[in-house]
Amino acid sequence: MEMSLASLATAWWIAAGILVAVELTTGTFYLLMLAIGCSAGALSAHLGLSPSLQMSMAALIGGVAVVLWHRRRDRLGSPLPANANPDVQMDVGQTVHVSHWRADGTAQVRYRGAEWQVRYQGVGNPESGPYVIRAIEGSRLLLDH
Questions:
Q1: Cα distance from N-terminal residue to C-terminal residue, the chain
Q2: Can you tell me where the transmembrane regions are (predicted)?
Q3: Which of 16, 47, 130, 135 could form a disulfide with 142 if both were Cys (CB 3.0 to 4.6 A apart)?
């Protein structure tokens, strides 16, 4: 039983939708690149290309998208660790005021309605004033100017 071009296009769109849904649960952009390939297969089916050309287009476009995404990621370098990434930790990048530092470079501050332990990770001796949260280590905020 041979599938019609319309049903092949539908199958490609369903495959693209499944890949997008799985990407949403896993968070990997590579699946989105493969979904782009499936979309190319669906468009090929709408254009009336043979099933083998549809698969070739899907593989070619999806493969090129994966390679380009991988190169882009390599060019940008490794992402920040989760404890210093403002996309993961909403506190990274926020400002706190430190009124008194201990000799060991630690202090206690009030932030978001609670008392937090902080540690200075900059250069030199810290002085009283505003500091930026650069990372979170357990329940301690790591500060710098």
A1: 69
A2: 53-70
A3: 135
Q: What is d(CA 40, CA 62) in angstroms, rounded to the nearest whole number? A: 8
pLDDT tens per residue across span 122-135 = 888 899 999 999 99
Token pair belonging to 97: 């005021």
Q: What is the CATH number of domain 83-144?
A: 2.40.50.140
Spatial distance between the Cα atoms of 25 and 32, rounded to a whole number of angstroms: 12
Q: What is the dihedral of CA 25, 31, 36, 38, to 10 degrees?
A: -90
Query: Are 130 and 111 spatial neighbours (Cβ–Cβ below 8 Å)?
Result: no
Report domain extents, the chain.
Answer: 5-76, 83-144
pLDDT of residue 1: 44
* Cα–Cα distance, 23 to 116 (Å, whole number): 36
Mean pLDDT across 16-43: 93
**17 pLDDT more than 80:** yes
Of 136, 92, 91, 93, nearest to 118 by C-alpha is 136
How large is the C-alpha radius of gyration of the chain? 25
Record the tokens describing residue 26, joined without a space: 């896993």
Which neighbouring-strand residues pair with 95? Answer: 132
